[in-house]
Design a protein that fits this description.
By secondary structure, this protein is α+β, with helices and mostly antiparallel strands. It has seven helices and 15 strands. It has two domains: 186 residues, Roll (2,3-Dihydroxybiphenyl 1,2-Dioxygenase, domain 1), CATH 3.10.180.10; 79 residues, 2,3-Dihydroxybiphenyl 1,2-Dioxygenase, domain 1, CATH 3.10.180.10. α1 packs across α4.
Length: 281
């Protein structure tokens, strides 16, 4: 084993240990309607799009899959100003839910996702202090880059194809800069934002054992045992991706939310998990 492979294996044993949550990503057909839905429920507060990225002189590069199975295209350009986002953000407790509007159909893989499955959560984005090494590790494990935005050769954000079990992509960014931290703190101080603490996602899968084995092979730790929840009608077991719990659920019987989601949308995220101070309220 050469030195590079040894370093990758060392990273694999600690994958996610230095990650912090950036956002939970949802592709939607109607951004404003989605934001209004969560705000009308009294759950989330619309805090607008992400702020503009500061200008950095140099060369930018953007690679993305045209389809969910590949056909990559890469554009390079001279950076000449700020980059703006067209998404909308719903602040649900300490969780930033990114609502990214797309049109169903050809053009980019997220549009194809929307056409096939409808609106839904398809990625979770983390900030990593070792984003380049973590990306290299996951690519070496067979997780192709589906989206990769760089400036001067450094990652701004990427999407890694971890959809094999659970149909969920992992997105990585470098550590948040001061401007982003200030924006997030401002969102949390909004008087209508509740005090919920985001803990993880429930992900419907058809084969729980194979899913856990896959994520362990990528380097995500778990000491959890497979359990059964008769009331919710599912088997479940989790792994930790940084601070976020991925609770994988396989239906037990046909009469459950997990079974219904699996039948109607296939594998994927079907619930957000929060810790609240007063469950009855």
């Amino acid at each position: 084993m050469n030195s590079n492979n040894r370093q990758l294996e060392k990273r694999a044993k600690k994958l996610g240990a230095n990650w912090t949550l950036n956002h939970v990503g949802m592709t939607v057909a109607n951004r404003n309607a989605t934001l209004s839905h969560y705000q009308n429920l009294g759950v989330g507060v619309s805090v607008g799009p992400q702020p503009l990225l500061p200008h950095e002189d140099g060369e930018g590069s953007l690679m993305f899959y045209r389809t969910l199975t590949g056909d990559p295209v890469t554009n390079t350009y001279r950076t000449g100003g700020v980059h703006n986002f067209t998404d909308g953000e719903s602040q649900i407790g300490d969780c930033q839910l990114e609502c990214y509007p797309m049109r169903p159909g050809p053009g980019i893989f997220l549009s194809e996702y929307l056409a096939q499955k409808g609106s839904g959560i398809n990625h979770i984005c983390f900030n990593s202090t070792t984003v380049e090494a973590d990306t290299e590790l996951l690519v070496s494990k067979g997780c192709n880059l589906m989206f990769n935005a760089t400036v001067n050769g450094k990652t701004v954000e990427n999407y890694l194809d971890t959809r094999l079990h659970g149909d969920l992509m992992i997105s990585l960014r470098p550590p948040a800069s001061d401007w982003e931290k200030a924006w997030k703190m401002n969102n949390l101080s909004h008087p209508l934002v509740n005090d919920w603490r985001f803990r993880g996602v429930g992900i419907a899968v058809s084969n729980l054992a194979e899913t856990i084995e896959y994520y362990q092979s990528l380097g995500f730790p778990t000491n959890a045992k497979r359990q059964i929840d008769q009331h919710l009608g599912r088997f479940h077991q989790h792994i930790k991706a940084g601070p976020v719990t991925f609770e994988f659920c396989e239906p037990h019987g046909n009469n459950s939310l997990c079974a219904e989601s699996l039948e109607s949308r296939g594998e994927g995220v079907f619930e957000l998990i929060f810790e609240v101070s007063d469950l009855k309220a």
